[in-house]
Amino acid sequence: MDLKQKLGAVKRSLLGRVKNHLARVHISSSVQKTTLTKTAHHAHVDLFRLGNGPQKILFLSGIHGNEVGTVKLNCQLLNHLTKHKKDFRDFSFFFIPCLNPDGYMEACRHPDYANGGRIGRLNAHGVDLNRNFPTKSFQMFSVWGHGKKYAEKTKVFCGRKGASERETKALLSLLHEEKIPTIFSFHNVAEDLCAARDPLSLELATDYAAKTGFTHMPHAEWLTLGQNGTLKDWCEENHVSFLEIEGSVKATRWGSDWGRQKKALLSALAKIRAAGYNAAT
Ligand SMILES: [Zn+2]
Questions:
Q1: CA dihedral 76, 24, 59, 115 (to 10 degrees)
Q2: Ligand 1 midpoint to CA 68 (Å)
Q3: Has this prediction a pTM greater than 0.85?
Q4: Among 53, 79, 116, 171, which residue's Cβ finds the most Cβ atoms within 10 Å?
């Protein structure tokens, strides 16, 4: 690395630290918190639960630990819904702000975008958790598309088998126990979204795209990305409504993107309410 490259890394590192600090979010302490599981590095995967209504929704983020801003987005949503909980008595909200805390902490320790900002994407076992679901499509290796129009492809390890990782296992236990019928999964930063193919998911995707300006990627196009063992696949196979959202470029990997996605999220809740209760089977 020459001097210019070194100075660039120092600049990105400082900027990353500042952006991460400025965008920090604290969770309201009144919210019920439990530990979903502990990771290989003994970090807690926190689960927050709000409300006791019949309509259950899970908001999931930090499945890729380097997508730090998604954790903040989920926390801001949690704080907002806590503040306005009287308006949402018919819901039970589940929040997992960071499914991959080992990766997340690694990403925060490397704010210089070393290795293209990829550090922290995988869990402590080097597994891409969003390829570790026990689906028909599961394979030990898959691809991660990134860069402009996902043109760059990187091979990723998906685990020895579906749900080999404790983070995935714990998430699946929660979904089975609570029969949660709807999941929002937050990623960054490609400004697009994909959905399961049930009518509610597609309705939510259309509305979310309209409210945010993000591109709704049709299933046929999503298939060309060549991903295996994803949460989207699992949701389709298990009749769970699902929306995966890639946040704004402007928010960078550090910012919450709450300003851009708040309206769309609240609109989605109104649509789920209008659709009626739908316990997962
Ligand atoms: Zn991601």
A1: 150
A2: 10
A3: yes
A4: 171
Q: Give distance in angstroms: CA of 133 to centre of ligand 1.
A: 15
Longest dimension (CA), the chain: 60
222 neighbors 196 (Cβ within 8 angstroms): no
CB 154 within 8 A of CB 125: no
CB–CB of 166/40 below 8 Å?
A: yes
Query: What is the distance in A from the centroid of ligand 1 to the CA of 63?
Result: 7
Strand-pairing partners, residue 155, are 143
The verdict on whether omega for the bond into residue 71 sits within 30 degrees of 0, i.e. cis, is no
For residue 209, the number of C-alpha atoms closer than 13 Å in the C-beta half-sphere is 17
Going by DSSP bridges, is the β-strand pair 192-195/241-246 parallel, antiparallel, or unpaired? antiparallel
Whether 279 has a pLDDT exceeding 70, the answer reads: no
Q: What is the DSSP letter of 198?
A: S
Closest CA to 81 of 105, 114, 104, 59: 59
In terms of CATH architecture, what is 3-275?
A: 3-Layer(aba) Sandwich (3.40)
Distance in Å, CA 87 to ligand 1 centroid: 31
Q: What is the CA 53 to chain-centroid distance, rounded?
A: 23
Which one-letter DSSP state was computed for residue 130? G
Ligand 1 mean position, distance from CA 64 (Å): 5
124 contact partners, CB below 8 Å, separation of at least 6: 39, 40, 41, 102, 103
Do the beta carbons of residue 216 and residue 192 sit within 8 Å? yes
Residues 97, 70: Cα–Cα separation, whole Å? 8
pLDDT digits (tens, 9 = 90+) for 237-261: 999 999 999 999 999 899 999 999 9
- What are the structure tokens assigned to 262, written together? 């708040």
* pLDDT for 111: 87
